[in-house]
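Handout, tutorial session.
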Amino acid sequence: LSPPQNSRYQTYQRMWNYMYSKQPSVFVKSTEEGIARVLNSNYAFLLESTMNEYYRQRNCNLTQVGGLLDTKGYGIGMPVGSVFRDEFDLAILQLQENNRLEILKRKWWEGGKCPKEEDHRAKGLGMENIGGIFVVLICGLIVAIFMAMLEFLWSLRHSEQSEV
């Protein structure tokens, strides 16, 4: 990984320049120090998403602002040509397929005392969101049938008068 000051993304470069120039320094030596600074002062702490989620479950005064800057997965490092690599791959795949990893994550992550956070992402449309459309369509259909009947009666009456 390249340092942020050498990033090809201008946003990251600007963030680094701003943070580097601040006095007193905005950098901390540990996650615990960063979280303590967030809780005790006007400070925002950039933290890896998994750790952020873990600490937010343990302390209800912490919150995540905005979305993720970047997403990465985790891996298990092994020496090249390790005989255990295939066994680990198969075991992890099996745990994923059985949903066991998600169950373990919920057990350890959501074991905190904080109430569930509201999900602010866009939700799918449900019947309560689009039910009004059907009411308008049905009312329009009824009005259209009524108008068609009036027009039919009108044309029928005028055709009888023209025949006489």
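The second record follows below. Compare its token runs with those of the first.
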Amino acid sequence: RVTFVSACCLEVSMLVNVYVEKNGEPLGCRQVKCESRMRELDQMLRSWDNPLEFMCQTLGFSPGNKEHLDNFLVSALQRNLPPHFNLLHTPTGHPHRAHASPEEYPTLLHFAARFGLEKLSWQLLECPGGEQACEIRNVCELTPAEMAEGAGHTKLANALRGYMVSRGRSTTIRAL
């Protein structure tokens, strides 16, 4: 099992610690340079009036077909997510505590919530670390539920809050 721990996944280039375990026994840790195009994607999406339309056009869907995009992203996540992968866990196995991130989209759940991608949001909640991602605040100190609410996705915002309440966690509802 390999666990990646990184403070920020939207950097163009960063060093990440790779922790290797075999049968629950740590085998070591090494720093690896990680190249990401997420920052570039973030900047491209910001330059468009309608980022979802841009994503649909890029993937060959009819413009603005959020449902098709949502289904495609869920399918892609299911196909490409390594088993037992949890970006939010530390090498000790303990999840990061809820915190504020210096990024607008510190997790994919924040992105999905902001753009009202309901199916993708639910799939991410089922992933290890999904519950913790609900509590992480972005650079504007917003949780995914608050981002969804602010973008007019009230149904998704209420569902995310309900999910946290059903898990015995409470998120403070703040005025936006």
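Points raised in discussion: The helical segments are 38-46, 51-59, 66-80, 108-114, 118-126, 130-133, 144-150, 154-166.
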